[in-house]
Amino acid sequence: MNDELKIPDLTISANTYEEAVAEGMRQLGVPADAVEIEQLEEAHDDTLPGAEPLPGVTVRFRIKMDVLLDHAKRHLERILELMGIEAHVEALTKRRGLTLNIISKGDGSLIIGKNGQNLDALQYVLNRIVMKGGREIVPLIVDSENYRERHYTKLEELARRTAKRVVRTGREIALKPMPPSDRKIIHLALRGFRGVHTISRGEEGNRRVVITPEQGAPPPKGVIRGRRPMRRNDPRSRGSHEGRREFQQSSGQPARNGTADSESGGENPSPDSPSQPNS
Question: What is the pLDDT along the chain (279 residues), one digit of tens a residue?
Fold first, then answer.
């Protein structure tokens, strides 16, 4: 697995170099020494020979991962010290983001908390400190005893397994409510998965990822969109009168004899129709 973290450069155009730098640093929100700033070549109007440079400047910003990781490590160590926790922080650059793994000298479960809630709180505070309220272009992940790595792997497996089911049945599936960090893992895991699309629905606290069939994608072979696929031994899948009679007898429906059913409004209900409640 490729653990290389790829963060795109930020490009800002403004009237002056100073304005571009100020806007870029505002958007990034990271320490100044963690950013490499480069002014790009002046643009010219290629349609006019010998034309003057176009007004304004363009500046490119590239984050220095090692410097930013060192900032985050020192801040997290200070937070743990203030909390009275004796631990060592291991700083790593992983595929999902800059990872700070807390190696505790005591009970690691106290740092992790129930369902990782303590890690979530530490991660939130650290991001607010290091990113200074910026766009969080670089993911900062706080982990302990590889809890998040195991958790994220399970989420990715769940995402792929559910996506295969959506492709097979042609029906959307809603996962259980998740925090934003978990939903992001689901979205990223299925970003290149053919035949499905992911969206988030619901209010925060009850917000969940819904995996839907990709619009325009043909339904899987043998599947009619909007219906549950029939099993091999399902009597409804047989074309004979014997199969239909067997299904009607097992479900309590009267056998069809060509007469109208007065309780269904003059029509016999199809095997796929839900039974009508008694009035």
Answer: 445 677 888 999 999 999 999 999 999 989 999 999 999 976 544 455 555 555 789 999 999 999 999 999 999 999 999 999 999 999 999 888 899 999 988 778 889 999 899 999 999 999 999 987 656 678 899 999 889 989 999 999 999 999 999 999 999 999 999 988 899 999 999 998 999 999 999 998 899 999 999 876 665 555 555 555 555 555 554 554 454 554 455 555 554 444 333 333 333 433 333 444 443
For residues 18-54, one letter each, b for 16 or more C-beta atoms within 10 angstroms of the residue's C-beta and e for the rest, the string is eebbebbbeebbbbeebbeeeeeeeeeeeeeeeeeee
Q: What domains sit in the chain, N to C, each tagged with a CATH number? A: 9-63 (no CATH), 67-145 (3.30.300.20), 149-213 (3.30.1370.50)
| Nearest-10 crossing angle of helices 180-189, 147-169 | 50
